[in-house]
Every structure is written in structure tokens, then in C-alpha cells.
Amino acid sequence: MFSSLPTPSTDKNVALFHASLIWPLQLEPLDVEEIKGRHWEAFERKESMHPWHRIDDEFTDDPSNFHERHYREFVSFLPYVQRFLYGEGRNANAAAKAKAGKSPMHVFRRKDITALRLTLHEGQAPIVLHLVHVDLYFFDDLDLAQLNVEVCASDLPLKTVRDILFRMGRSYPSGWEEDGDGLHSVHLAEWLNAEGQVMARSDTEHREKYLGFVCQHRSPCISEHWASLLRPLVLAHSDEPGELRYRLIEYHRMPVMAFLALDDPCSLSPDDWVRIGMASILHPDENVPVNDPSVIEFKQRYCLDRYWSGTPAGPNTRFMCTGNALTVVGDAALPFFSNPERGVLAQFRHQFFLVFLIAHLHRAALLVFSDVLVGAVNALNISDDESVKLFKRRIRANFETFLRFTHRYWFHELSERPHVQATFRMCSNHLRNDALYDEVRDEIGEMSHYLDSDSQRRQSNTVVRLTVITILGLIATMTTGYFGMNVIPFGDAPLPERVLHGVLATGVFIALVVFAVSRSKRLSDFLEDLSDEKMGITGRLRSFWSVFRG
């Protein structure tokens, strides 16, 4: 079905290219108690100290600025997804408007960077990609952020686009070439401002930096151009100061969405489709692995062909989703495909972007929950009471957060539109979100069951001790009742004698209660032996004597 030789169609030109990187990051819990779990609030309070600024959403109150693409995005989702993405509905009544719930998703954007200049290989001419958006997403109740970087360009060779998709979204090199360049990374990446000045650049060629960081911290170090983009967020294991710290969740290759408008996409060969759909993991110069199951079953596994006919009559828009990549390819000659307001491009940048974002939010949040459980277990020292108490608090807090995640963020159905829902389902299936959810739920359930069992054990021990004390108290009650029969006329004694008798009796009963509490376990065992009809007198006496032994 697939050949290993390139075809002439690999020289095709991409008339319009859009790509969005979505990078999930785990946030370290804040040390400040009053803002615990509210990373976005701490981030917003320092707006004057960094280039990020919060945006409520693009749904402005002014209808003249509310475009059709916003409306189409909104109505694509089911009501409970709308409330997650945009908050509760607004009411003309001021009191009702004040009570309206806001979205649990908080977005920050920076506008000081306008372009990304990539030198893919040493000696090649650099490629300048226009920066459409640089956004940072925070979520209530989740120690999680997602970075979104959207770039675009026009009139690029298809081979160059595949090379960009393969090399651009890598947070650190997986190794080094013989010439010193980062393996599978761009030779040089540079963020540019509006004047064309370099704001930050990659440093993957500094091999010793990455080797030393991993050796010292047992954690990877990210490239400087990504680190600079995220500041004031700083890497958790670095020596850089900052209260907002993050750590990596997954592999260094970032999930990516790609939009390609080609001339005559029907002329693409099967090999070309595989190279485009798997561009982020298949080296541009590598032969297609024809015996790989993912290649053999590529169309069945990864292609959504509801709008693909493969004929001149059309439609000829193909969606390909591998989980970590969502690629849309269509005919550049059709104005509707590249229409940024009503066409496929508008859907790609709005509806399908949110679909991809939510699918990766689910996976990242579940991985964070699992990591918190591992951290709690690793920190547990059963011989240390404080460690045990901290472990219980962390597990209970994680369980509560997981419940809120389930009811606020976890969806199986996003839309009634078949293609939107099918895309979400395919992406989630390739990411194994359902299986991962079941694993995390079972892990949290086991921890919760352990805490419940431990609480029941402690309550049982308390009941046993109280039972023993009650039995001894019964003896004391009967004794005092006997004295209350006035066999010995304590009531007729002088006041000092009665006070003395009261003090002595109180001391004796306090000593008996303290003794009973301290030996309640042994007394409980003795009572069980005493009720055992098969045990002889000698065994019972031995059991009774064990109560008083040190």
C-alpha cells in the first residue's frame, strides 16, 4: 500500500499554514496559604512585573465586536461545556448578573512577541512565522497550566512544513548531532518583537548545560527560548527565584495542531498522507515504515473522512488525529476552506482548538492527580505521626479535587455536531483518557479505602478501651452504691473525715481509670479469655496476671 520512495507530490506548496502548540505544565502548590490553589490570582497580581495580561474572553459585551466565528464557536458545544468555557449565562438584571458564575478557565496573553524565526538547519535561510497568539491557560482547582502558541505563514514548501512540525515543538533536545546541534530540534529558534529585535533564542547547542542539569536535579532542563516565554513561571528544579513554579508532565514533544491549505490535495500519495499526519513523530528524511501497524492501518486509525471524497467533485477536507497531533488538510483553491470568519480555518482555530485543548486538559489533569498520589506515598513514614497526618490531608485534598474535576471538567460528550464529537472522541481514545481516568479513580479509591479502614480501626480500638473502662466503672458504681446503703455511716462522720474519705476515694478511682486506660488492650484480651468456655482456670489466671506484668 505504501512505498518507501518519495513522490513528486512532496514538492507541493502550502499556500496557508497555521500551527498551534498546546503544552501542558504541572504547577507546584503555592506556599502562601491564603492563595493556595489560585495560581492565576498570584499571576494576575504581578501583571505590572511581566508581559502577560489577563483576557476575560473574546466574547465582548459590545455586539458590534462580537463576530460570527465567536457565535459559531459558542453554539458548537453543549450547554454544560459552554458553562465551563464561558461561565454562566448573563442576565440584564444587575443582581442576577452579579451572581453569574465565571468560567473556571483563566487566560493570560502576551503581545510583546510578534514572530518566531526558525533556522531549521545550519546554513539554511531562516523562516519567519507570524505569531498569532501566545496564551497561558489556568484552571480553578487544578495545579495545571497550558501554554498555547499559534503561528502562521504562507507559501511554504510542503517538505519545509513537515520539517517545522517535526522540530518546532520540542522543549529540550533528546540528544545531540555530531555537529553539536540538538537532536531533532531546530538549529536556532528566536522570538522577535514588532521591531524585529530578538527577545530570546534557543540554546540547544549548549550540551553541557543540559547534561549538568539532569545530573544534578534528575530532571530535564528546557530550552531558553521556552523558559523565557513562560516567565515569571520558572522550572521547579532550577535555581531561578520565583514563587510560581512548574514541572514537566509528559515527553518533551508538545502536542500540535496543524492547518494546511494545499493546491490539489487529491494528488497526494499515500506516503504523503502518512508523513503529514504523523509529521511530529516521523523524521522528514526517514522512509515511511511500511510494516508498522500505525502505517498499515493509518486511514482506519487516524483519518476522519466525513468531508473527504478524494475526487475533483469534493469535498476534499481531511482531518487526521493521532492524539498528540491534529492535522487538517484541504484545497487552497476553495475560498471557504481558508475563510477565517466562516470557513474551515475559523473552525480549526476555534471549535477544534477547544476540542484539542480539552482532550489534553483531561490527560494532563489525570497525570497530575497520579503524580500527587505518588508524591504522597513516597513522603509517607508510618513511624512518624506528623508524616501520617500530612499523608491523610494530602490524600483527602486530592480526593476532593478529583471529585470537582469529575463534575466540572470531565466530559464524554462535547457537541451534538457529529464531526466535532468524532474528533474529540478520536483524540481522547488515542490519548487513552478513559483508561487513565479509570486507573486514577481506582488509585484514589484505594487510598480513600485505606484511610476509611484506618479510621475504623482507630474507632474500634477506642470502643474497646471504652468498653473495658465501662466494665471497671460498673464495678466502681456497684461499690459506691453499696457504700450508699449506709452500712458504714460515713455521713455521720465529722466533716474533715468525710473530706478525707472523699479525696482518698477520688484518688483511688482516678488511679483505677488511668490503669484501665493504660492496660485496656491487655484487659480486653483478658475479658475475651474469660468469656472463652474452652479455656481452663490456669489459662485464665495466666491471662489475668499478664494484665499486671510490665
The chain-level structural class is alpha+beta
Helix content: 40-55%
Count of β-strands: 14
Low confidence ranges: 1-8, 94-100
Please outline the major beta sheet: 14 strands, mixed
Count every helix, treating DSSP H or I runs of 4 or more residues as helices.
Answer: 18
How many whole angstroms does the radius of gyration measure? 34 Å
Structural notes for this entry:
The chain has 550 residues and is an alpha+beta fold. It has 4 domains: 8-57 and 103-349, no CATH class; 58-102, no CATH class; 356-453; 468-548, no CATH class. Helix content is 45%, strand content 16%. The chain has helices at 39-45, 68-75, 79-86, 94-99, 158-167, 207-217, 224-230, 270-277, 293-296, 298-302, 344-349, 351-378, 385-408, 418-431, 433-483, 495-518, 520-531, 537-548, and strands at 13-27, 53-55, 105-109, 115-119, 127-139, 144-157, 188-192, 198-201, 234-235, 245-248, 256-262, 303-304, 318-321, 325-331. Strands 1, 2, 3, 4, 5, 6, 7, 8, 9, 10, 11, 12, 13 and 14 form a 14-stranded mixed sheet that branches. The longest helix is centred in the last third of the chain and has 51 residues, at 433-483. The chain is elongated, with a radius of gyration of 34 Å. It starts with 12 loop residues before the first strand and ends with a helix.
Summarize the structure.
With 550 residues, the chain is α+β, with helices and mostly antiparallel strands. It is built from 18 helices and 14 strands. The protein has four domains: 297 residues, no CATH class; 45 residues, no CATH class; 98 residues; 81 residues, no CATH class.
